[in-house]
Design goal:
Helix content: 40-55%
Strand content: 5-15%
Largest sheet: 9 strands, mixed
Radius of gyration: 19 Å
Number of helices: 15
Oligomer: single chain
Structural class: alpha/beta
């Protein structure tokens, strides 16, 4: 079974078990091992600030978090940064995830990977790499990242393929890169990548500053999703395309396809704001918690150093409120696409200073 089918099925199974037994748990969790990075990308979701060792989560603290996540029966754990490979004990952390039988990926920029390190990750139980690919050439990728990086990313893909570790390529779709989506898709397909997640740049970290002067127009948003939808069909049997900012995309897909009842249910499972659906949570390097990896702020007074992630996720008033669809405002309130949309709570929090505000990129209601 190839990656386009294997991972969706492995992700869905724990989620379905949780639903059947009435267990309130996230499907995907991001765990930030460090906020240090060897690059300084324009759209980094977390600013590359310098932290002191006394703030960083310790190895035993991270092990305890992983044990709690296993208790919650999560589907996927993404070890993130910064650049997670810059943390010396990241392999020990990966091994603990494997020991607890958690499906685990590493989100990396790919520039620090070597053949031996990839082999060590594979031996330690890594399921896949989340690899940032923001262009099909160095000139194109430099619009989102650092010049000269493309060659290192290209070499990393070859090493991953050589070691038969799956790749989930992620692409930040910006003003500079949205016209390159077809080139990126063709490049990834030629490299043998089976899963691609293009994501419209979200207003968090350094990207929040970028978006002050570079917001998409509604027509540009429509064009981006039309392109992604076309690429989804074009590469259907070759590469799965799962937009990470799925809350706007799946209503577009519903309008274009007039899908069957079964497919609508699938879009409802795959789409929608994961914060509103209560299917995700993110733990920062210092123990603070965000509703999702791309949320502009943190959950007030929530830190895994003094409260378990189980208690925070299930009972924190801020998170519980964000899951109440009746509190959504503007065009999002009572929208018929809530089952597969719900707007982006991060955009509301960052752009309108209100996480319940309507999504400024909505292209369906006037």
């Amino acid at each position: 079974m190839n990656a386009t089918l294997r991972y969706p099925l492995r992700i869905m199974l724990p989620a379905m078990v949780n639903i059947l037994v009435g267990r309130k748990s996230p499907i995907k969790v991001g765990l930030q091992l460090t906020n240090k990075c060897n690059l300084d990308c324009k759209f980094c979701y977390f600013k590359n600030d310098v932290h002191s060792d006394d703030v960083l989560l310790s190895t035993p603290e991270i092990f305890a978090i992983i044990d709690d996540l296993k208790t919650m029966n999560i589907s996927v754990l993404a070890l993130t940064g910064g650049e997670p490979l810059m943390r010396e004990d990241h392999v020990d952390i990966l091994r603990h995830c494997t020991k607890r039988k958690i499906l685990t990926g590493i989100a990396t920029n790919g520039t620090l990977l070597t053949r031996e390190l990839i082999r060590e990750h594979k031996r330690s139980g890594l399921s896949w790499y989340h690899l940032s690919v923001d262009g099909a050439s160095d000139d194109a990728q430099a619009g989102a990242r650092c010049a000269g990086v493309f060659g290192m990313v290209d070499a990393a893909i070859d090493l991953m393929t050589e070691q038969r570790i799956d790749i989930i390529a992620t692409t930040v779709v910006s003003k500079e890169t949205h016209r390159c989506l077809r080139d990126i898709a063709q490049y990834l397909n030629c490299k043998g990548v089976k899963i691609w997640s293009p994501t419209i740049v979200l207003p968090c970290g350094k990207a929040k500053e970028y978006l002050r002067d570079n917001m998409f127009t509604k027509e540009e948003v429509r064009t981006v999703y039309a392109t992604i939808h076309d690429l989804t069909k074009h590469y259907r049997r070759l590469m799965a395309v799962f937009p990470m900012d799925s809350q706007i995309y799946y209503p577009y897909a519903v309008l274009q396809e007039k899908p069957s009842w079964t497919k609508r249910k699938m879009y409802g499972f795959m789409g929608g704001c994961s914060v509103v659906k209560g299917t995700t949570v993110h733990i920062n390097y210092d123990g603070s918690v965000k509703p999702c990896s791309y949320f502009a702020g943190v959950v007030p007074n929530a830190n895994v150093k003094n409260r378990s992630i189980i208690d925070i996720f299930r009972h924190d008033p801020y998170l519980v409120a964000l899951r109440d669809k009746s509190r959504l405002k503007g065009k999002c309130h009572g929208c018929s696409y809530l089952y597969c949309c719900g707007g982006c709570r991060s955009r509301g929090a960052a752009i309108l200073d209100d996480p319940f505000a309507e999504d400024v990129y909505c292209i369906y209601k006037q």
